[in-house]
Amino acid sequence: MSKLRTALAAAVLGAAVVVPAVPAHAAASTPEARVNTFFREYRRAVLDTKDQSPAEVRAHYLTAELNGRLDAWAQANDADPVFRAQNVPLDWSTRYEGSGAGHATIVLTEKWGGGTSQDVWHSVRLDTLVISDLEGPPAK
User: Fold this and answer.
1) Distance between CA 29 and CA 36 in Å, rounded?
2) pLDDT at 25
């Protein structure tokens, strides 16, 4: 009986080793989760705690057209185009704002030292979960 338990335990452990880990971005199955995952991965890349560069993270999560506009924004504003600032936010939160015309709007609130915050609005394609726009709050 002891040999049977040992063999069974070895089989279970062996099976666990064969199962691949799921990448963090694969788990992002909603627009809100996708924006949260993008921001976390981008922030890690900027802070140099990730194997990918910020440009590689942007290329994975954003449309090429948006990437081009963000590059132009960064040059014009001398700031990070995703953070919309020259430094890195300490924390953030996301909220679903609505959807229509095949896109969802996700508001990401960046939280800064001193208790200040800033909203950045993200547009996410519902069919692919690719982020197609990123901008400050709409004018009221």
Assistant:
1) 11
2) 41
DSSP string covering 6-44: HHHHHHHHHHHHHSPPPPGGGG--SHHHHHHHHHHHHHH
Degrees, nearest 5: CA angle 39-88-109? 55
How high is the pLDDT of residue 40? Answer: 96
- In this structure, are strands 91-100 and 103-111 parallel, antiparallel, or unpaired? antiparallel
Residues in the chain: 140
Q: Is the pLDDT of residue 58 over 80?
A: yes
Place of tokens 């194997």: 51
98 CB burial (10 A radius; 0-12, 13-18, 19+): exposed
* Contacts of residue 139, Cβ cutoff 8 Å, sequence gap at least 6: none
DSSP string computed for 57-99: HHHHHB-HHHHHHHHHHHHHHTSBTTTTBSS--SEEEEEEEEE
